[in-house]
Design brief:
Blueprint lengths: L2 H27 L1 H35 L5 H18 L3 H10 L2 H12 L1 E6 L2 E6 L8
Antiparallel strand pairs: 1-2
Helix pairs in contact: 1-2, 2-3, 3-4, 3-5
């Protein structure tokens, strides 16, 4: 299935699933605790976006000053920011995915899945390749 088609399906189904989540959690906890939970996750997401955004920029700058390539930090930071953004969006499914992206192990797993097969454009030419990370014990 093409990614654009999958993205359209998710965009259609996600609001419906979020509404169902509100109904289920609201029935289980009550209206005010449900609203309070949504407000708390929104505030947590905003705090994460603000604090972690600056931390990622500092980390990338340090890598670049050390002559290292900051790509992993940039993409890992982007996933962290996505996690914070998903917490800001109202809904329990987006909150769960956002919280999962805040866990470093899950973030690195998602990152490795995303960069396993990558495309590089160099001088206008597309260079396709596969990426495999090997951990060597010292």
């Amino acid at each position: 299935m093409r990614i654009s088609k999958l993205f359209k399906i998710i965009l259609f189904l996600l609001p419906l699933l979020e509404i169902a989540g509100f109904i289920i959690v609201g029935d289980w906890l009550g209206v005010f605790p449900t609203l309070l939970l949504i407000i708390i996750t929104t505030i947590a997401g905003l705090v994460i976006l603000r604090t972690q955004g600056f931390m990622i920029l500092i980390q990338v700058q340090r890598r670049m000053q050390a002559g290292e390539h900051p790509a992993v930090d940039v993409f890992g930071g982007a996933l962290l920011m996505l996690g914070g953004l998903l917490l800001v969006l109202p809904g329990f499914i987006t909150d769960i995915v956002g919280l999962l992206l805040l866990i470093p192990r899950i973030r690195s797993l998602v990152l490795s899945l995303l960069i396993r097969k990558g495309t590089v454009v160099q001088n206008g030419r597309v260079i396709e390749g596969e990426f495999h990370r090997e951990n060597h014990k010292k």
